[in-house]
Hints:
This protein is mainly α.
Amino acid sequence: MNVLDSFKNIIGYIVIIITFVVKNIVVMLKIIVLMILLHLVDDFVFQPVCLSRFKQKTYWSGYRFSKFEKDWIAGLVCHGFEWSSMVMLPWFFVDCNEVVFILTWFVSAVIHCFVDHLKCNCEKINLITDQSIHLMQVLLMWLVMIMFL
């Protein structure tokens, strides 16, 4: 084996490594785009009007519902965990760390509940801020998942 053959082998290995890295980068970019689309679909299309009302304290505070005045919490929790499940859906099809997956899913659901509570009940943030936080949240979820692949 001469120097030229060794050089050809090294170039061949470099091409294989670059191809592998580029393919993985494309897959990871597809996943983040899909996560963002799933966020938009879930927060705007799949969230029925009744669920958006159920997340509000004012909906349950009327005389008819006085014994259910804390049920708005169930509405927030239901939507938060459903949203987190929807956004994490692409990761079901990727071989990833299950513990990181479950922790990311759980923490993002809790954060989503808190942010929606700030918007729906405390009226501390508006829709644009709410959606900006959720998009940053999706990006962080993606980063955490790719860090532990």
